[in-house]
């Protein structure tokens, strides 16, 4: 009897995790979604955007536990609106487009945080994996929902800005990341 | 003595002249160094200094023009020939025109290139043109030509002042010197 029970438990544990994921699955509508970042340049805000990214979510707003959030960001789609700057950020000192064209965030720890939610997970950016908390607000809309939030990352942790650029007096240490994701069930 | 009179410059006019002279020489050097520096935090800082100094020069120039237009300027020596008077007026007009045109074209470059900028890292400078690479490139070359013209006019200005002093032996140079009060 004991053997059978432990065998059953073993089988259950061996099952792939997504089978246990709870909540509806959501897909991103790229047209209504934005992923922005704001660095600082000589103490003035320097805004940028990742034009291409994708979000997949399993999420029940009433029962966030057991959900999951997966975001892939095409780092090479970054646009800071200044031709000279766009030329610079592709280099090894900054995003290193050829070495690390994609960034990812994965979370399987979604929970409520007051009237909002927070996804705790791992951000992989420029070859560095770092635990990150992504807070977000959830707003159901007619046909879907939007998730919105912002967080602050320190560029130095991810080796963004090497050599002389490590100094933070000219290009600030903190980068604010802001997102608005339009989601459809599916 | 504050106001200018028929044969001397007042203290404010002298102060404007020498402070702006120092700023303009420093500004030309800063601009040349900033352009040729390799892309680095130092280069970005040099540009902030250069742009900030440009805005300071433009603000000082506005005050200087108000001051100048509110009073008279000392007369040129009576023995100057017509062509010399014309040269004096033309070069002074060009100096004022360039002191306006250089900061303004710089402002256009800064606006068109869309680089965030705060004067001396504090006061945000509003854009006067929409972001556009072609505009930025065009005005960068205009800015460069204007500074070459400024260099020529400065050579004429300094040369003429020295000629007044050492060849003509008149008071045109000495009456602008800060320590002369007569």
Describe the fold and architecture.
The complex is a heterodimer of chains A (186) and B (182). In chain A, a hairpin with an 8-residue loop joins strand 4 and strand 5 (68-74). In chain A, strands 1-4-5-7-8-9-10-11 form an eight-stranded antiparallel β-barrel. Helices cover 11% and strands 51% of the residues of chain A. Chain A has one domain (2-185): Lipocalin. Chain A is mainly beta. In chain B, strands 1-2 form a two-stranded antiparallel sheet. In chain B, helix 2 crosses helix 3 (82-113). Chain B is built from four helices and two strands; from the N terminus they run H-H-H-E-E-H. Chain B has 182 residues and is mainly alpha-helical.
Summary of the model, kept short:
The complex is a heterodimer of chains A (186) and B (182). Chain A has 186 residues and is mainly beta.
- Give Rg of chain A in angstroms: 19 Å
Give the strand order, joined by hyphens, for the main sheet of chain B.
Answer: 1-2
Could you give the distance between the termini of chain B? 9 Å
Largest interface: A-B, 18 and 18 residues
Total DSSP helices of chain B? 4
Q: Give the number of DSSP strands of chain A.
A: 11
CATH class descriptor name of chain A: Mainly Beta
Arrangement of strands in the largest sheet of chain A: 1-4-5-7-8-9-10-11
| Overall 3D shape of chain A | globular
- Overall tally of domains of chain A: 1
What would CATH call the homologous superfamily of chain A? Lipid/polyisoprenoid-binding, YceI-like
Tell me the total number of β-strands of chain B: 2
What general outline of chain B do the C-alpha atoms trace? elongated
**Number of helix segments of chain A?**
2
In angstroms, what separates the terminal alpha carbons of chain A? 42 Å
Assembly of the depicted chains: heterodimer
* SSE succession of chain B: HHHEEH
Class inferred from helices and paired strands of chain B: mainly alpha
What Rg of chain B, in angstroms, do the CA atoms define? Answer: 18 Å
Kindly report the CATH topology of chain A. Lipocalin
Main sheet record of chain A: 8 strands, antiparallel, barrel
């Amino acid at each position: 009897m004991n053997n059978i029970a432990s065998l059953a438990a073993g089988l259950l544990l061996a099952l792939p995790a997504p089978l246990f994921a709870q909540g509806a699955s959501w897909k991103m509508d790229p047209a209504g979604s934005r992923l922005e970042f704001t660095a600082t340049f000589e103490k003035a805000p320097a805004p940028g955007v990742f034009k291409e990214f994708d979000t997949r979510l399993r999420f029940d707003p009433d029962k966030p536990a057991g959900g999951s959030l997966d975001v892939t960001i095409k780092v090479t789609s970054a646009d800071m609106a200044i031709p000279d700057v766009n030329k610079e950020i592709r280099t090894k000192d900054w995003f290193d487009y050829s070495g690390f064209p994609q960034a990812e965030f994965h979370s399987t720890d979604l929970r409520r945080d007051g009237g909002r939610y927070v996804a705790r997970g791992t951000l992989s950016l420029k070859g560095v994996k770092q635990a990150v908390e992504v807070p977000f607000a959830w707003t159901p809309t007619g046909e879907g929902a939007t998730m919105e939030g912002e967080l602050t990352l320190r560029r130095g942790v991810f080796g963004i800005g090497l050599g002389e650029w490590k100094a933070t007096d000219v290009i600030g240490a903190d980068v604010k990341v802001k997102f608005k994701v339009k989601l459809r069930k599916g | 003595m504050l106001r200018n009179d028929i044969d001397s410059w007042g203290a404010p006019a002298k102060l404007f002249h020498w402070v702006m002279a120092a700023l303009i020489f420093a500004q030309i050097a800063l601009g040349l160094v900033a352009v040729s520096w390799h892309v680095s935090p130092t280069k970005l800082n040099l540009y902030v200094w250069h742009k900030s100094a440009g805005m300071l020069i433009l603000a000082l120039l506005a005050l200087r023009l108000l001051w100048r237009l509110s009073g008279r300027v000392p007369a040129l020596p009576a023995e100057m020939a017509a062509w010399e008077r014309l040269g004096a007026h033309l070069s002074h007009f060009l100096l004022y025109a360039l002191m306006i045109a250089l900061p303004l074209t710089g402002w256009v470059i800064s606006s068109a290139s869309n680089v965030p900028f705060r004067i001396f890292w504090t006061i945000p400078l509003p854009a006067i043109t929409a972001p556009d690479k072609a505009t930025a490139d065009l005005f960068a070359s205009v800015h460069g030509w204007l500074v070459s013209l400024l260099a020529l006019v400065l050579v004429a200005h300094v040369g003429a002042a020295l000629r007044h002093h050492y060849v003509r032996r008149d008071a045109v140079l000495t009456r602008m010197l800060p320590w002369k009060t007569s």
